[in-house]
Design goal:
Elements (H helix, E strand, L loop, with lengths): L4 E4 L6 E4 L1 E9 L2 E9 L11 H6 L2 E4 L4 E4 L10
Antiparallel strand pairs: 1-2, 3-4, 5-6
């Protein structure tokens, strides 16, 4: 990563220092996706998808069925 980032957390005046970034491939409904992720120490979850990734790959949260869904047309955007 080109520079260290300071990301604010829920506590006022407290920041998390992020020094690394990684590009990862991941699957949603057997559709291969790829994006860049910040490596953030001490998170309560293994991965947190941001709004930019969700918009880029047209990812939608289906709360009724407790599922993550991807627009099938997204698969056509990938190089095979």
């Amino acid at each position: 990563m080109g520079r260290i980032r300071q990301i604010a957390n829920a506590s006022e005046g407290h920041y998390i220092e992020v020094k690394e970034v990684v590009r990862l491939d991941f699957y949603v409904d057997d559709i291969l996706l790829s994006d860049e992720f910040l490596v953030v120490p001490g998170l309560s979850e293994e991965i947190i998808l941001g709004a930019a990734t969700m918009q880029k790959w047209r990812i939608k949260l289906n709360f009724e069925d407790d599922r993550v869904e991807v627009d099938p047309k997204v698969a056509k955007m990938q190089l095979i």
